[in-house]
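Hey, sorry for the delay on this. The queue was backed up all week. Below are the sequences that define the complex (chains, strands and the ligand SMILES where applicable).
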Amino acid sequence: MRNRSLVSIDDFSKEEILEILDLAGKFELRPVGKLLEGKVIATLFFEPSTRTRLSFESAINRLGGKIVGFADSSISSVTKGETLFDTIKMVNSYADLIVIRHPFEGSARFASEVATVPVINAGDGANQHPTQTLLDLYSIRKTQGSLDNLNVFMVGDLKYGRTVHSLLMAMAHWNTTFNFISPEELRVPDEFKLHLDNAGLKYYEHLDFSDIISRADIIYMTRVQKERFSDPIEYEKVKNVYVLRNSMLRNTKANLRILHPLPRVNEIHTDVDSNPKAYYFEQALNGVYTRQAILCTLLDLNF
Amino acid sequence: MKGGKQQLVVSAIQNGTVIDHVPAKSLFKVIQILGLDHIENQITFGTNLESKKLGHKAIIKISERYFEDNDINRIALVAPEAKLNIIKDYMVVEKKVVKVPDYITAIAKCMNPKCITNLENVTTRFQVISKKNIALKCRYCEKITSGDNLKII
Ligand SMILES: [Zn+2]
């Protein structure tokens, strides 16, 4: 593998992504092993993210690896004022691989330049969260059988949502048709539309689900946050438009699955949870297999 | 000498480099990027000169100093139309134009306030994704800084 670190999803080619997804499939069949025995993995969470951290730690533990690190920099030995450079230099000599979550955008790329061991970006501010994208891709492939020629609906905050942007960039490898459903103020930024134009892919923008939902293979839901609106009245007007309810799924395709990066607030009504098309809880479990695959790939460990 | 009247505004040099067609508003950025404020050579410059192409232009003449292409291309961010005349014995012996490089290190500031380069001591690095209307993609935060938002460090 060309990259020894995973910082940004577009560092990886289509083939490299598929290799990771194939390996994740093997871990789903045999989740416990000893591939990381004797390895020490540093998990540096400069901001708390319990969900992502537990998923990584579960992946590491299932493979027999040891963990050093911290869950929140305010209670860790990382003193305020120590630079990221110094922290990475120190940890680099204790660990075989570094998982980093840090609020500054670009922090993981910088860490990967400072470290001599592989670095996995577990979220750098609003920039990238590539392990989320890989688990999304894994979930899509698993439920649809393939990543080719799907009709993907992305709903909610498409302007600031980093998971949406990374997934969009990745799905552009597979002749995807995109339907973007968002309020006017939270539309997909032009740079991503330009990327789809250059890739020759079709995309459509909508203000609501209307009657198009019957065409969806995947619905990827995100939260519309009040803080994103310059005008609070605009938020009040649209806040219920981007909520998915079970009744809306009546005439949808049998293969449709609903994804959400979690945690959810109210954008998916709880009456959807018992619908077999709801996939967001299994999606989270797929994160463990995907992270097992990423760890072993970057450490060049064979299954 | 072509355009004789204007040339006279800033006196001729015997040996060195003349940088012409610098946008007037970029004069001090060019001086900063080339480190002209830290060298001992004799430098004369004129600014707010009439230019059909640029509106107001500036011209810089540096005695006894010649630049490597790599160095001079760094000013392309702020003076993409700049032209260089290499002077030997009062004669133009070579003309050069600047080329926008593919990658830029340590000159420009990332416009994203949440970028690590603005929050810790990290050297900025950009990929130039558009040369005509300057657009730089930050190697770190991956955000795009366009020409109008460009600040020189
Ligand atoms: Zn940046």
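Residues A 106; B 110, 112, 115, 117, 138, 140-141, 143 surround zinc ion (CB under 6 Å).

I'll add it to the shared folder too.

S.
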